[in-house]
Structure formats: C-alpha cells, structure tokens
Amino acid sequence: MLLPRPRGPLSSLVRDRLSGAPDGAAAGPVPEGTGTAVLHDEDLQLTLWMCYELSYRGFDEVDPWWEDAPFVAQVRRGLERRWEAGLRELVPVVALEPESVPRALARLVRADDGPPLAQFLQRQASEGQFREFVTQRSIYHLKEADPHSWAIPRLSGPAKAALVEIQADEYGQGRFERMHSELFRDTMRALGLDDGYGHYVDRVPAITLAVSNLMSLFGLHRRWLGATLGHLAAFEMTSSLPNRRYGNGLRRLGGDADATRFFDVHIEADAVHEQIAAHDLCGTFARENPSAAADVLFGAACGLAVEAEFGRMLLGEWARGRSSLRPDRPTRTAGSDSGELALSG
Question: Domain limits of the chain?
C-alpha cells in the first residue's frame, strides 16, 4: 500500500516526512485544524489514519521505524486530543453501575435509530451503489477484527476467554479461507473491485476513515480498553439483521453464494456473539473494573453514532444523485520510481 494523497496541510506534512529517511526530530509547529466537524474533517481523519496504519501493515515506501518516531507520536497525540474532544461532544459519558452494563448496552442498541441504510441496500440500491458501499467498507473489513484484537493481551480470566472466542470466529477458526477479511475479498472480486488492502483509501471520505479511526483510537490505547470492548459489543449486537439485508440485496442484484457468503456468515455468528459480548465480555469486565464501566457504554455509543453518520452520508449523496466516493485522480503506481501515473480503480 502506498501513502495516500494528502487532503490538506496536516496530511501533506505527515506524508512528506514519512516519505523521507527516518529521523528523531520532533514535529515542530503542526498546522491548525480547519474548523470542520471532526467526523468530516478530511485532513484530520486522513492524517490520523496514516499514523494509525503505521501500527498495522504500514506503507510500501515507509520505513517501519517511523511507527514510534517522535514526530509521529507528537502529531498523533495532538490529533487524538481533537478527535476525543469531538467524540465527547457527540456522545457524553454517562455514569452507571457495573452490574447494569449488559442491560445498558441492550437499551442503547434498542434505542438506536440510525438511517435505514441496510433496508435501502436490500430493496432499492443499484449495482453501482452496492459497489460503492462495499468499496467504502473495504477500509475496515480487509483488516476485520484486528483493531479489537489489541485488547486480548490487556485482559485476563473469563473476559479474555470471551474475547478470544469472538475473535477466533472472526479469524475463521484458523482457516485462511474462512477468515472474514478473506470472505470480504470474495465479495469485492465478485463485484469487480480491487481487493488490495487499502486500495481505495483515496476514494473514501472522512467519515469512512473515522469509522476505522475510532476502532484504532480505542484499540491502540490501554486507557480505552473498556471503550474497545463496548464498541465491539455494539458492533456484534447490531449486525445480524443488517447483514441479512445486505446479503438479500446482493442476491437481488444477481450475487451468487460466493459474493454473499461474507454477509451470510455474519447472520448466525453475530447472533451468538451478541450474548457473549454483552454478558461474558463487557459484563464481566465491568464487574472486575468498576471504574471503566462508563467507558464501555461510551465506546458502544460512539460506534453507533459514527456508523449512523456514515449511513447518512451514503444515503444523502445517493438521494442527490451523486456518488458517495471522492473523485478519482491519477495516482503513482506501486514500485514506480519514475513518477509514472496510473488511474486508481
């Protein structure tokens, strides 16, 4: 994966530094934000995404040393302060008793009134719109489960066992072809999309990057362990019905069993994971860590709120007769030292 195209002064600064040889210099003055709401700040979300990706698979032309460089750490801390402040404006922290966490999660999920994206994809979406949805989702689904897996070494006892049980299913119980990320690749190929990791990052807007960045913010920081678990619980507790609708929508458009398997697998798996996540994982964790109970609910609420905004963006653009993707532009081909250009897919 190559470094993405910059979207403003912050991402330009980080891209330029990461393209060079590693050094120990600090960032110096960091450009101020644009004032755009944090979920839709293209420059902030792309810059954070680049910094976070250094802790996942990195970039082809970037030295792995940059992951812990003072420059990256300084930029990331500054952006995360703005990111966290925006999240707290979006979702206030609510105090609750540890024993009530599973019930609070259930109430939160029942009260969720996000946009009817799944219904639209099931009944009305064109093939082009469904391809756009899958393109947008590829930013997360091609690394599915990885952000939440950061929590495994930070847990112990029954809560750790519960998380491992959920994650084992996400990783196909050790079978490569059953890994959910690989099943998603099957869906992408069936729709004629490039299944390369991060291939479409230049095409997706800030809110799509925010979906991924939220998981990374929580997952990469031990202080947000409770929020990581709450986010995962909300993810599992709200996905069975939408995935049924996604699968039916793709079948309506002519998708075969290989194309729909990713969605179909999640119908049964996430119905089981729902109870494990709410009770065995989050409930146990909250009882053992009472001070983090509110973080569990905060992580879940943030996940639902960001997903809802993602759905509103897609439906809003389609209602206006526009693509939800950013305009395509020439990008440098991988492995090219000559500056040769090729159109991104």
Answer: 9-89, 97-319
CA dihedral of 98, 104, 106, 107, whole degrees rounded to 10: 170
CA 277/CA 289 separation, integer angstroms: 16
Residue among 113, 147, 167 nearest 231 (CA): 147
How is 200-227 classified by DSSP, letter by letter?
TGGGS-HHHHHHHHHHHHHHH-GGGHHH
DSSP 62: S
Contact 54, 66 (CB under 8 A): yes
pLDDT digits (tens, 9 = 90+) for 273-313: 889 999 999 999 999 999 999 999 999 999 999 999 999 99
The pLDDT tens digits for 71-80 are 999 999 999 9
Output the six-digit token pair for 202: 């230049």
Positions of the chain with pLDDT lower than 70, given as ranges: 27-36, 270, 330-345
Q: What CATH number does the domain located at 97-319 have?
A: 1.20.910.10
**Nearest Cα residue to 38 out of 112, 74, 91:** 91
